[in-house]
Amino acid sequence: MDRFPHAADVEFHSPLDLSRAAAAVLDAEGRISGWGSSAQRLLGHPSEDVLGRPAARLLAADPGQRLSALCKADRARSTVLDLSCRDGRTLRAAVTFSPLAHLGTAATVVVAADLAALRGWEAQLALLQGMATESAVGLTIFDTDMRVVWGNTSTDLELGGVAQYVGRPAADLFPEGEFISRHHPPDEDQIMEHVLTTGEPILGMHYRGRAPADPGREHVWSCSYHRLVDARGEPLGLFEESLDITDRYRAQERLSLLVRAGKRIGASLDVRRTAAELADVAVPQLADEVLVDLPPAVIEGRQPPTGSAPGHSMLRMHGRTPEEFRTSPVSYPPASPQAMSLATSRPVVDAAAPPGERASAGHRCSLFVPLLARDAVVGLATFRRSSNPDPFGPEEQTLAVELAERAAVGIDNARRYTSQHVAALVLQRNLLPQHLPAQSAVEVAYRYLPADSRVGVGGDWFDLIPLSGARVGLTVGDVVGHGVHAAATMGRLRATVRTLALLDLDPAELLTRLDSLVAQDSEPHADDGLGDEALGVTCLYAIYDPVSGRCVWASAGHPPPIVADANGSVALSSLAPGPPLGLGSLPYENVELSLSSGSVVAFFTDGVVEDRRTDIDIGIDRLAHVLTWQRCPLEELCDRALSTLPPGPQADDATLLLVRTRRLAHGQVADLELPPDPAMVARARTDTERQLADWGLSDLSFTAALVVSELVTNSIRYATGPVLLRLIKDRSLLCEVSDNAHTAPHLRRARRDDEGGRGLFLVAQMSQRWGTRYTASGKTIWAELAVP
Q1: How crowded is residue 681: how many other Cβ atoms within 10 Å of its Cβ?
Q2: Which run of H or E residues covers position 512?
Q3: Coil, helix or strand for 629?
Q4: Sign of the CA dihedral 395, 399, 401, 402?
């Protein structure tokens, strides 16, 4: 099937060739004595109309003298004449007059052709001549045995003389070349055989090699192959068109390399991976090997050293995965090209072996490019060539600099990210408790899993707060969002909860005050950047008393705790949580539970029981099932609970705080109820000394008796009902005096002539800490004494 069905026929015979031109014969008088069929086709006049008549009648004008002169010339002459056609047209024709004086009556042979057709043929001939002598497209003709027959001037220049290759096979032209287009057979003999056999041309094959006339530089050609056939359609051979596209091909390669670099370099926010990404992109298209050297400070996330100077110690990156990554120290002598590149902040090409390394047969050239970001040197990239003998040209140096710039930005971003990550982790460690203090009231274990694994911080918090009377405050909270802002908000709220807890507020009162503070932070004028996170804060606060086994908790939009008693039965709270903090809509309510010794209470955030794929009720049931194993160690229970989380990235931070309750033995608590009579102070002192002797704490008798005496005296003075003295032997000695008065005692400095006002001052001096807490029936003044 014709590949170009609408193509015009190409005729390589001249229109004045006798096989094509209109021919006539004139006698000595200028009359037509011979008229060929070709002349009839050109002008339309039949022979009977023109034979024997003057030829001048066929002229559109009357240049009789000119025609006579042409007929009498002694040699062939050519001119352009306007001829009259039978249909009335005027044809401008190229006419040649050839004298035949020695042949008798036939004086002149006239050959004519359409002038426009002749000019077209001459243009085709000029085109062929230009392609053979001036075209940049190489044309090479091969015979059916695929041996060189002919080549144009361009081919002659590339081969350094095509004559020496005539009769030789195509493989001899570029013995080390190769096709880099992979959509056809990569072997040139196979391509030629295919074209000769099928007649199907193969176009646009990219071929890479070294021209015999320029062996020191690698070129790329675009090659096309076409079959040649004779007039009968039999194959004569084939010809090859080749165009040197080296510059365009390399420009496209540079562009594709930069596009690939933009997608890959710096996407990981990891200094080590970014160094490996630069090598992955540049090898083997630009270099055979890429080495990246960085200062230790950059790898650690610190600021790069200012004024990187020759000889500055660096670390060379090895490995392209975290598992195989390692570093090795490297330094540059002051006169080395690496030191020069760092000192001048410019690329340096060096054809010698790198300092400290022996020259090898494979090493040919190195290009050293400083890694610059924010006007600071963050490292050095070395591009090496071993198999490619070409030095790094200006375009390749520019490309290496662009790749190095992208890598430098990625490395600097990774360095800053590492710095922020370290700062965020430090912030998180400082905001969350590193260890919870050991308490007689409870045993605890906890787990914290931030959803943002890259930053490693989130908005969840938990805490255990020692309170007076051997009690503990337990809290867990959740700030919407992840990252540093959520962590900062979390840290502020955790500190606020701890401060309010030390005021001995009950859970509902503490959440009410916290709600008011969060609402203030969420007002429109709050410009600290933390108000948005504060709008989504939940919190649960509980107080456990190991003397009574009583646990009181309140929730601000937070899931209630799950309780597993000592028998293994699991219970969920039936009271719905109050509104999240900052809304200020509904009051918070206390929930009171009586816990037996050995009960396990699970405080948790949404991330432990909820994810995108499962409902929160399923997650709570899953956690409750884990708590049926409450006799296991708490650390093991924590691991079991988190092992049930679905695999994959978490949607929310997950915090779990497990608490196993303890009860103080009856022998550790002593209560004494005293009537509001000043004479009872001596009894309180005596009973205190006796109880301490029973506990083996006689060394504290004097101090404890003095503290009890002052506290009881103060209560009897202001109370209207009985006074309760309680002594608790725990990690310290706790002395508590409760009454029905709501007036708060104040520590003041007594003057020399004052008869009172020194009691609380003595209590403060002799105890580790002291304070007052309010109850529904009054207040309790307490003091803690260190046990020797």
Answers
A1: 19
A2: helix 507-521
A3: coil
A4: positive
